[in-house]
# Entry
Amino acid sequence: MAELEDSSLSPTAGSKRWQLNRLTGRGRWPQATRFIVVLLILYAVKQVFSVAAYYPFSGHDELAHFSYVRTLATEGRLPELPDLAAWRAGLRGGDPPPTDEIPAELYPYCRFTLDWYCDPDSPRWSDDPPRIVTVPGMGYFPSGYQYAANHPPLYYATMVPLYAASSAASSVAQHYLLRLAAIPFGLLTVYAAYRATRALFPGDAFLTVTVPAFVAFQPQISYEAAMVNNDIVAIASTSVILWWLIAGLRDRFPLRHCAALGIALGLDLLAKGTAITVAPIIAAAVVLGAGWRDWRGLLVRGVAIGIPAVLLAAPWYLFLYRTYGDFSGLARVKELQYWNGPMGSFFELLVDPDFITNRFRETWGEFGWRQIHLRPELLWAIAIPTILASVGLVVYAVIVWRRLPGSRQDPVMQPEPWQGYALIVLFLTCVVSYLAVVEFGTSFALSQARYYFPAINAGALLLMLGLRSLLPRQARPAGQGIVFGALVLLNIVIMTGYVLPFTTTVDEPSVTWTWGG
Amino acid sequence: MAEVTVARAQREESLTFPPEAPVGPVPQLVPALPRSLIILWAAFVVATAGFLITGRLRIGAGHMIGRRMPAREIWSRFFAFLTDHGASASLVLFVTATAIVALVFAAVAFWLALALQDAPPKSVADNSAEM
# Structure
């Protein structure tokens, strides 16, 4: 195996040879490089197929995201959520004020959207889709408006050139192009998983194979990377942040590194509001990495991270405040979505078996806006190894904590302090992400698993570390292959048994498509 | 007058780089596997191909939910669906090709996954600038 020490190849030399060696991966771990290259190619090809396999506009909120891109591209402005009081006042005057709507031509896909009275087979509505609904006892509400208008603009702005370049094509063709444009974000997520694993446990084959493979074949993450949506940008940027946090813990957060983290955080905040949950994770990592006693160092690093993050994100959040009176626009969403009430209190939801089960179902299935439900036997086939891996993680923690004999020859079982901190940070990321979903459920019934998908790389690393802990050393090569093969088979089964049959028959009238079923 | 001869200043890179970077053994194009892992790989490939060609499964979503159907028919219906919805023959061929290529790459990646062994200590520290 090629062995080049980085110390002999200083990047400050800036030599072409160093760059070449770095790019080719020569001297590092060519077998691992080759695996990730093949995995990324496989992922890209698989995702191209997925773009075609999912029924048009069937991704969660795809219609709303597509309409956002259209407004930005054709009118050069951000869409806005309607102000219910002003909208009703206008209605009383005879005409509701102009509202940013989902285009009427997309009404045939209304079953995949949230707030649009849906009866696409009705002759009355098919030519002139409904824009107003009456709710008994509550009055009039807008229908078919762009309910994703309060989302940050980064993803949509990135898609504008593609939308503009394809303006001659049909909406459906444009939507397929935009779906394809989500794939690079998925690739970045998988690559970040690989680099995070290599940064944390550089020479471990089991983790190097299974962590990026888990991310690449996790069905819902793949789904996000074949859809018109901003979630995948948040997933990718958070994945990069996690990778850089691990590298930062190892290198004690040099200032340049902190500035890059700040930029990534700023972009993350411009991708999706849920990125705010990453901020305390970064803070915790910096404190652990730099040491809480070095308050001067912490201050400088905080400034290096905070300034670029604030500079990038502030304009958007000021816009939100000016437009909606808060930093999320969620008060207006609540006002408009009368049906989207709280699910319960924080502690009720935390221990509610239905809430937990539904998040698990959404983590693996519920494609097509909760219309494709995986069967219980398949969910159990996923749950059992997941539970085993979680138990393995506890076993790992105990072994590391107690420094049990038998683990001395295994560098993964003897982590350096910074590696231990990194694992704490990964665990915190999962916990904070999940609790944020619980917290969201205290205000909205539509709290969903995808809000914690940005933590996918943290979850994958911890689960695969747990699984590794249960396997004896001799069994690991077969184990890493079995994990890989099982993930491939899971994707084939889901595609063959669920996604393709749904896509080919969803047009048929006897399908019950009640949203949320 | 005393004269001092000094060596010409050298660029940093010429000092830090050996003339030829030591390069380890070039990895084989197809890394070798122990027989047991070859059997595992072959079993996976045969099982997957067998399932897609001759297997049946219960449909879990859509109009035909609950029915058992051959996997091959499900895939054929999908490609027919694309044609029915206006996809050109070349586009359908392209989508079919992506499915096949993905399966081939999955088999290759599976082999590489089985072949990857722990790296010797100190040879793989991923200390690059990371960004």
In short: The mean pLDDT of chain A is 90. Strands of chain A lie at 132-135, 139-142. Chain A touches chain B through 89 residues (CB under 8 Å).
